[in-house]
From TrEMBL:
InterPro entries: ATP_synth_b/b'su_bac/chlpt, ATP_synthase_B_chain, ATPase_OSCP/dsu. Residues 38-112 form a coiled coil. The chain crosses the membrane at residues 6-27. F(1)F(0) ATP synthase produces ATP from ADP in the presence of a proton or sodium gradient. F-type ATPases consist of two structural domains, F(1) containing the extramembraneous catalytic core and F(0) containing the membrane proton channel, linked together by a central stalk and a peripheral stalk. During catalysis, ATP synthesis in the catalytic domain of F(1) is coupled via a rotary mechanism of the central stalk subunits to proton translocation. Pfam families: ATP-synt_B, OSCP. It comes from the Bacteria. This is ATP synthase subunit b. It is a single-pass membrane protein. GO terms for molecular function: proton-transporting ATP synthase activity, rotational mechanism; proton-transporting ATPase activity, rotational mechanism. The keyword Transmembrane applies. F-type ATPases have 2 components, F(1) - the catalytic core - and F(0) - the membrane proton channel. F(1) has five subunits: alpha(3), beta(3), gamma(1), delta(1), epsilon(1). F(0) has three main subunits: a(1), b(2) and c(10-14). The alpha and beta chains form an alternating ring which encloses part of the gamma chain. F(1) is attached to F(0) by a central stalk formed by the gamma and epsilon chains, while a peripheral stalk is formed by the delta and b chains. Keywords: ATP synthesis, Cell membrane, CF(0), Coiled coil, Hydrogen ion transport, Ion transport, Membrane, Transmembrane, Transmembrane helix, Transport. Its main location: membrane.
Length: 249
């Protein structure tokens, strides 16, 4: 077999030219297209991975937010329950305090009413006792309504301040003498003598019959009233009772 070197050389040159042409106009563009597509694919993969990571981060954030919301919800519920319990306890305590105040006020009112009722009963009893005493004494014999009262009247005058006694002794007008019944001459003389021993002279008397005196003697002067009578005693009893009642209010 004989080799045609010229033909082989030409074919080799043609092959090299074809390879250069393919490399120039086919392989490089195709490689570039492939490289571009690979880069685009990598970019898509990277973007997808980034989106996946972002989605995962969002999912994690959402889960954390849900957890936080659940915790906040529980905290708010607990706070609401605590506030409700505190409000209920406050209302209960306030209601109990108001009930206790009302109970204390009611007890105070009841005690005051009891005291007032007791005072009223005592006052009425005292007035009744005084009325009974007045009625009983008014039935005494007339002699007992004057006899024995002159000395007590003289003693009451003697216990007056000196200036008051001097005014009584220096009076020009007769001393007005309130009596429960008309006096006899002997009774008038005895009363005049008893008063005269205290004043230093026998005064003139102006007897005035006053049944309210009940029993006893009362001297009425310009600046003083001297009593030695049952009316005076009963009036003092009532006054003392009223003073005691006023002090206890």
């Amino acid at each position: 077999m004989q080799i045609d070197w010229w033909t082989l050389a030409l074919q080799l040159i043609n092959a090299l030219i074809l390879i250069w042409i393919l490399s120039r106009f086919l392989f490089k563009p195709v490689a570039k297209v492939i490289a571009d597509r690979q880069a685009a694919a990598r970019k898509i993969v990277e973007e997808a991975e980034a989106l996946k990571q972002a989605a995962e981060a969002d999912r994690t954030a959402i889960a954390a937010e849900r957890s936080n919301l659940a915790a906040e919800h529980e905290r708010l519920l607990a706070a609401s329950r605590q506030d409700a319990d505190e409000a209920r306890q406050s209302l209960v305590a306030k209601a109990e305090a108001e009930i206790e105040d009302m109970r204390s006020a009611a007890a105070s009112i009841i005690d005051r009413q009891k005291q007032e009722a007791a005072k009223e009963v005592s006052r009425q009893a005292t007035q009744l006792a005084v009325a009974i005493a007045r009625r009983l004494v008014s039935r005494l014999p007339d002699a007992s309504k004057v006899t024995g009262f002159a000395e007590g009247l003289a003693k009451a005058i003697a216990e007056l301040p000196e200036t008051t006694r001097a005014d009584l002794a220096g009076m020009d007008a007769p001393l007005r003498l309130h009596v429960a019944r008309p006096l006899t001459e002997e009774e008038t003389a005895a009363i005049t003598a008893a008063i005269g021993e205290v004043l230093g002279h026998a005064p003139a008397l102006d007897p005035v019959v006053d049944p309210d005196v009940i029993a006893g003697l009362e001297v009425e002067a310009q600046h003083a009233v001297i009593r030695n009578s049952l009316r005076g005693d009963l009036d003092r009893i009532l006054a003392e009772f009223q003073d005691q009642e006023a002090e206890t209010r």
